[in-house]
Design a protein that fits this description.
- The structure is a homodimer.
- By secondary structure, chain A is α/β, with parallel strands linked by helices.
- The first copy, chain A, has 2 domains: about 120 residues, 2-Layer Sandwich (Nucleotidyltransferase, domain 5), CATH 3.30.420; about 170 residues, Nucleotidyltransferase, domain 5, CATH 3.30.420.40.
- Chain A is built from 10 helices and 12 strands.
- Chain A has a 5-stranded mixed β-sheet, with helices on both faces. In chain A, strands 10-9-8-11-12 form a 5-stranded mixed β-sheet, with helices on both faces.
- Chain A starts with a strand and ends with a helix.
- At the A-B interface, helix 8 of A face helix 8 of B.
Chain lengths: ~325, ~325
C-alpha cells in the first residue's frame, strides 16, 4: 500500500493506493492557503492516519508517501520551490519533515506529472507504452510517460508543454515568453477568446449564457454553440484550432500511443474530442497503420492521487 | 564490429564502427538518384566489403548492419516508405535483401535520428543521460536520445521537431501545416529571410556577398553581419529569434542535459551559439543549478554513420 497526497487549490486529499492503482480510501480537508507549514504537515499526518483507518490498513503496511503538488520541485531538497496553493510552503523541507514521522520513502511530484502517471498507470492510457497528457485548466498542465516512467528532464523541471510558443510574438505569458500554447488553449484562453467575441458581438446568444464578461467560464462558448449560436460556434472553432495546433506538435514530437485530455474543458466530451481528432489527423504525420489515439481522461482528480502514490515507486 | 551506412543525398558511405563508436574505416561512392534498387544494393555490398578490407576486419566479425536514411521508415517491413534521395528505393525490402547476403541483424534508422544517436554516443553529448539534436539543413532534422535510446514514438515516426508549429497560420510547409519551425529556422528559412531583406534593401552589403538572389546561401547573412552590414545583422537577429523560439520550446519540454546543434548553419560556431544561448536563457524555464547545455555538434557526417551502426544494437 502507498499513500498519495493531492495538494490541490481547494482540498488537501490523502489516498491509500494499492499496487494496482486502486484507491482504497481517501480523507480530505480544505486547503488553507495561509496556514503555516507545520500546521499543514499536521493536517497531512492526521488525514493519512484517517485514510489508513478507513482502509483498514496498518501504518506498517504503507511503503511510501508521495505528494502531487503544483509548483517547481527541488528534488534534491525534497521541497517545493514556488508553491502556488500554499505559499508558506515555499522551500519548506516537506520530504524530511514527513520522513521524521513516517520512516519510509517520501516523494514529491509535480501535480500535472502525477495526473499523467495516474492516467497512464490506471486510467485512460492503462497498458500503453507511451502517453502524453494535457490538462486544460487555468493553465495547461502536462505530463509525459515513456516506458512506464515520467519523462521530466535531467533536472526534473521538464514536460512544461503549456509553455511552448505556438504563436510567435503572441499574447504575453506570465512565464516571460510570448505566445505560449496555454495562453490560447487552456480554460483561461477559451475564456479570453469568448470575452473577445462577446465584446465584438453585443447581440449574440453568448450574452444570454453569460450576462456579464465576469460570468464567462470555460463552458460558455460550448453551451452557446450547442444552442446554435454562430458567435459561440466561431469561438469553439477558433479554440479547437489552437488546441489542435499544440496537440499536432505533440504528436509530431512524441507519436505517443495515447494522448490524453484532462481538466475542466475535457468535460465537453465528444463536442471537444471529435473535432479535435479531425484537426489533428490533418495536422500531424500519419503512420499507415499505427496512430496516436486521442482520449478524454477517465480518472478526474483521482489521477493525481494515484500518480503521486506510484510515480516514483 | 558494426556496419553503418549513410544513405546521403551526395554520397553513399559505408563505415566500420567499433563498440566504442570509433569509425575504423570508410568506403564511399556517389549516390545515384535514378539507380534501380538492385544496383544500389550491389554498391552497398561492394562498399561494405571494401570497408571491411580497409579496416582489416573479417565479414564474420561484423555483428549488424545499420542504415541511416532520410524518409519515413516502415519498421515492420524494413523498408523506406518515401526515400527522397533514391526514389526507386521506396518500399523496397532493403532489410530482407541485405539479410539474404549477410545473415546478421539489419536495422533502418531515420538519418536525423542516426545523427543524434551518434552525437549522444560518441560526440558532443557523449556520456549524457538525455540529449536533443537539431540539424539545421535544408529542413530541420531532429533526434531525441533518452537514457541511451532513441525516442521515436510507438510507431517509430516521431521526433519530427522541425514540423512543430511556432507561427500559427505562418508560412506554408510542404508537410501540409502552416508555420512549422523548419520553415523559419532551417538553412532554407535563413535563405528566405536573407532574400526578403535583400529585396527590401537594394543598397545593402548583402548584395556584395551574394550578387543575385540565387547566389544566397546559409552563410550570406552571417558573412554580411560580420562585416558590419546592418541588414545582414538584422537578418541574423531575426533568424536567431526563430531558432531560439523552437530551442526554448524543446528545453521546456525535455530539459535535456545537452541540446546539440548540427548541420551547415552550425559551422557559424560562436556567432550562432552565443546569442542563441542568451536568448534561450531568457525564454525557457531555468533550474537553480542544472540547466541544458547548448553545444555545436562535433562529428559532422560521421555522426550518421556511427548512429546508424549502433542505434538499434
Amino acid at each position: 500500500m502507498y499513500i498519495g497526497v493531492d495538494v490541490g487549490g481547494t482540498n488537501l486529499v490523502v489516498g491509500i493506493v494499492n499496487g494496482e492503482g486502486d484507491i482504497i480510501a481517501k480523507a480530505k480537508c480544505p486547503t488553507d492557503t495561509i496556514k503555516p507549514p507545520k500546521a499543514v504537515i499536521g493536517d497531512i499526518l492526521r488525514l493519512a492516519a484517517e485514510a489508513c483507518e478507513k482502509a483498514g490498513v496498518n501504518k506498517a503496511e504503507i511503503k511510501s508517501f508521495g505528494f502531487g503538488t503544483p509548483g517547481t520541485i527541488d528534488f534534491e531538497k525534497g521541497a517545493v520551490i514556488n508553491s502556488p496553493n500554499i505559499p508558506l510552503m515555499n522551500n519548506f523541507p516537506l520530504r524530511d519533515t514527513i520522513q521524521a514521522e513516517w520512516a519510509i520513502p517520501v516523494y514529491l511530484v509535480n501535480d500535472a506529472n502525477a495526473a499523467a502517471f495516474g492516467e497512464a498507470f490506471a486510467g485512460s492510457a492503462k497498458g500503453c507504452e507511451s502517453m502524453v497528457m494535457v490538462t486544460l485548466g487555468t493553465g495547461i498542465g502536462s505530463g509525459i510517460v515513456l516506458n512506464g516512467k515520467l519523462m521530466m528532464g535531467f533536472n526534473h523541471i521538464g514536460a512544461e508543454i503549456g509553455h511552448t510558443v505556438v504563436v510567435l510574438d503572441g499574447w504575453e505569458c506570465n512565464c516571460g515568453r510570448k505566445g505560449c500554447w496555454e495562453k490560447y488553449a487552456s480554460a483561461s484562453g477559451l475564456i479570453a477568446l469568448t470575452r473577445e467575441k462577446m465584446e465584438a458581438n453585443p447581440d449574440s446568444k453568448l450574452w444570454e449564457i453569460a450576462p456579464t464578461l465576469e460570468a464567462v467560464d470555460g463552458k460558455t462558448a460550448f453551451a452557446a454553440a450547442a444552442q446554435g449560436c454562430s458567435a459561440g460556434k466561431a469561438v469553439v472553432e477558433l479554440y479547437l484550432d489552437y488546441l489542435a495546433c499544440g496537440v499536432g506538435n505533440l504528436v509530431n514530437i512524441f507519436q505517443p500511443q495515447v494522448l490524453c485530455i484532462g481538466g475542466g474543458i475535457s468535460n465537453e466530451g465528444d463536442a471537444l474530442l471529435l473535432p479535435l481528432i479531425a484537426r489533428v489527423e490533418k495536422g500531424s504525420f500519419r503512420h499507415p497503420k499505427n496512430n496516436t489515439e486521442i482520449r478524454i481522461a477517465s480518472l478526474g482528480n483521482d489521477a493525481g492521487i494515484i500518480g503521486a502514490a506510484l510515480a516514483e515507486v
